[in-house]
Amino acid sequence: MIRVLLVDDQPLIRSGFRALLDLEDDIEVVAEAADGAEALALTRQHLPDIVLIDIQMPVVDGIEATRRIAADPTLAQVHVVVLTNYGMDEYVLDALRAGAAGFLVKDIVPDDFVHAVRVAARGDALLAPSITRKLIDRYVTQPLPTVAGTGLDELTAREREAVTLVAHGLSNDQIAARMVISPLTAKTHINRAMTKLHARDRAQLVVLAYESGLVSPRSF
Q1: For 173-201, how does the pLDDT look when each residue is reduced to its tens digit (9 = 90+)?
Q2: Can you name the CATH fold of 139-212?
Q3: Which keywords does UniProt give here (predicted)?
């Protein structure tokens, strides 16, 4: 059973998402919160698999709540997925750097929303190519300084290649096809890279790939 915590300061938004998830036999909404502080408390209480959290909220916003959840070692198995609007792309990078496993736009198609919850529960990042494109666009228009000492020198050539493809938004199957290896081997390369780079998940690999200079936005 996939356990979900819904966090949004708008009751109508929460009830809409809950109605969709309540239709699924393998998903359970364990609690709802109206702000980031309440979300943190309920996350510690219920230990959900997924926290679906809005960005702009009172008391504590979604990005800060995500940062606190990601920093708590007792919540290491909790995957935070940020909810946002199309007009708020500037927050995407901040959410990923805070530890989010990905993000969803609020007007997502219902079937895609439910699928996304299952994807996040498996530990896969919600970073489709179109979403990654928006992240890259920010680097192009507002480039950040390259961060040194990220540990990239510890990666093998194949692990670096896999990380590069993750940063371009490819799935494990697509990475396997591009590298001419099995999906299991692709996943192994990615998991080893995450361990060596101390990345919480694939989403953080994307951030590290760009901040380290491994991938250039203009190469996408």
Answers
A1: 889 999 999 999 999 999 999 888 888 77
A2: Arc Repressor Mutant, subunit A (1.10.10)
A3: DNA-binding, Phosphoprotein, Transcription, Transcription regulation
3-state secondary structure the chain: CEEEEEECCCHHHHHHHHHHHHCCCCEEEEEEECCHHHHHHHHHHHCCCEEEEECCCCCCCHHHHHHHHHHCHHHCCCEEEEEECHHHHHHHHHHHHHCCCEEEECCCCHHHHHHHHHHHHCCCCECCHHHHHHHHHHHHHCCCCCCCCCCHHHCCHHHHHHHHHHHCCCCHHHHHHHHCCCHHHHHHHHHHHHHHHCCCCHHHHHHHHHHCCCCCHHHC
Is residue 29 within 8 Å of 4, Cβ to Cβ?
yes
Domain ranges of the chain: 2-126, 139-212
Cα separation, 116 vs 110, whole angstroms: 10
Q: Are 101 and 108 a contacting pair, CB within 8 Å?
A: no
CATH topology of domain 2-126: Rossmann fold (3.40.50)
Length of the chain measured in residues: 220
With both helix axes pointing from N to C terminus, report the angle between 157-167 and 172-179 in degrees, rounded to the nearest 10. 130
